[in-house]
Amino acid sequence: MELKSIKDVKSIKKFGLKDGAKLLISLVFLLLAMIYASMQTDSLSGNAGSILIVAAIFGCYMALNIGANDVANNLGPAVGSRAVSLFWAIALAAVFELSGALIAGEDVVTTIKKGIVDSSMISNTQVFVWIMMAALLGGAVWLNIATFIGAPVSTTHAIVGGVAGAAIAAVGWKVVLWKNLGVIASSWIISPLLGGIIAAGLLYIIKKSILKKKDKKAAAQKVVPFLIALMALCFSTYLILKGLRAVIEIRFLYAVLIGCVVAITVFFITKPIIFKTSDRLPNSRRAINWLFNIPLVFSAAMLSFAHGANDVSNAIGPLAAITEVLHGGFSEMNANIPFWIMFLGAAGIAVGLVLYGPKLIKTVGNEITELDQIRAFCIAMSAALTVIVASQLGLPVSSTHTAIGGIFGVGFLREWLMRNSLREDVELDIKKVKMKFEQKKLEDYKTELESLGKLKNIDPLFIKELITKINEEKRLIARATETDIKTTKIEKKAIKAVEKHEFVKRSALKTIIAAWLITVPAVGVLSAMFYYMLRGIML
Q: Is 515 within 8 Å of 149 (Cβ atoms)?
């Protein structure tokens, strides 16, 4: 894996025609967004219309970067496992991201409702508008940087850091609700850990129940329908709770019951299909992988829909707040987001995904660890399960961190299993060599005793008794356990050399963790700087 990064570094090119075309399309999109926003300013007086247009540009810039960075977490595993091509994955995600944002987008200004800052301390409407604009610009710039260096980060954390940083610049440190911010920060640890544990656990179960069996086809015919039904349960519950809550409010218990009905239906539909399909396949892991292709495509679509429904608010939430303030609704802060704002956010995510998404999709799918369909299935499942479990426990989680944690969990499980297997093989080889050596010594001793008995005329019964003891000793050596044989320093070095083989790219791990840790403070600093710049321009 590390050698691959050297190849990647060598293949880096300067800014070329293709990059220029992408930049031009992005600028055209922002220009169209500006024109569209200007059509919504008829009811505004003074410079309020100009402020709204600028805010709309910032919001669309943020949406572009959300599409470029955050959507990769849904598509990366499916593309990396070759369940679907990059082109069709992007096309699929663009449709479902757009649909999720427009059909089930959040209906509240989430950045205010999260309780990041004490809004009662921001009584000046102008200051509030500057804070929201600075937060959007700071978050967008940071996401742009993260996408450039190939680090998938949480867009939710970016907007949280942006609001906090700009508010501190405007009012002071006391404006931030530090306890709430601490709870949000805890997701930096909770999300990847939960995602990694669940993904690794699912992969371990699949390995034990299917891949380690001699008759993999028969095992797959029994287990795979249950796994697909479990996926249907998770995603239907996930969509009802997270993706459709803006359309209809359904309690957790009812969502699970609906999910169970969907899962049972899916089970009885897929069981004969899996049985018939697998019956024609060879008895190999590669063939079993093929059975997970359609579930993976389905999971990528569902995750994209839910992502569009939830994370579009990171781009348009502040813009909606600004719009509400400019129309004189500062006291409410809970109005529905206008359709034109929702449309801009949804379109921005789709355009950002198409133009700049492939880079992060390849990073998530190929450059952290090697994925196949089974591993990618476990990652997708862990993303949905983690969000459902954490939401009901009241734990803050990031879908980005969850998906990336799942990828690392799968990779590290493979390392652990591989090392254990190779270690056992090496120790077994050492054990066999030692057994042969000890048995050869005893055999030589036995031969010497027989010769000695003939030469010295020793009682044959005595010699026979000694030889019987030697044979018993040989049998004991043959039955020796691992603890009966101590490894030497050279043998320990051989085992340690085996353990150095890695399935997870450590450079990617370091880059991603570093980006996660500095996202909130980095965006906070950027947003504070942008706040002072906007304030200087506006005054």
A: yes
Report DSSP state, residue 174: G
Neighbour-count burial of 524, counting CB atoms closer than 10 A to its CB (0-12 exposed, 13-18 middle, 19+ buried): buried
Contact call for residues 153 and 69 (beta carbons, < 8 A): yes
Distance CA 299, CA 366 (A): 18
Please list, in sequence order, all residues whose beta carbon lies within 8 angstroms of the beta carbon of residue 237, skipping any fewer than 6 positions away: 255, 256, 258, 259, 384, 388
Largest CA distance in the chain: 124
> Token pair 């060879």 is at which residue?
282
* Residue 450: how many other CB atoms lie within 10 Å: 15
Q: Which two tokens stand for residue 484?
A: 């009966």
Name the residue among 256, 246, 225, 226 with its Cα closest to residue 389: 256
User: pTM of the prediction?
Assistant: 0.75
At 459 the three-state DSSP class reads coil
Distance CA 464, CA 471 (A): 10
Each residue's pLDDT tens digit, 167-208: 999 998 988 888 878 877 777 788 888 889 999 999 999 988
Give the Cα separation of 449 and 454 in Å (integer). Answer: 9
Query: Measuring CA to CA, how many Å separate 397 from each of 39, 95, 162, 389, 517?
Result: 38, 25, 18, 10, 15
Q: Note the helical H segments in 207-251.
A: 216-238
Terminal Cα-to-Cα distance of the chain (whole angstroms): 53
Which residue type does 28 have?
A: V
133 C-beta neighbours (distance < 10 Å), count: 26
Residues 6+ apart with CB under 8 A from 455: none
Query: For residue 430, which of 493, 502, 499, 500 has the smallest C-alpha distance?
Result: 493
pLDDT digits (tens, 9 = 90+) for 431-451: 665 666 565 665 665 565 566
The residues near 122 (Cβ < 8 Å, ≥ 6 apart) are 128, 131, 167, 170, 171, 175
- 8 Å CB contact between 512 and 360: no
